[in-house]
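Slides due. Your pick:
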Amino acid sequence: MIGLAIGAFIVGLILLFIGLFVEAAKFLLWIGIVILIVAIIAALLRFIRRNA
């Protein structure tokens, strides 16, 4: 599960940078932000469950 979160984080970062540098693909910026937020939430939930 943590591997999936890391993969989503990396994909989110890539889409974020592509969205920042390519003016025609601004929607990728928002997709990247959403994927990053989901990956961070998944990682936090995994961390909380492991410590509980």
Q: What stands out?
A: The mean pLDDT is 81. The chain has two helices and no strands.
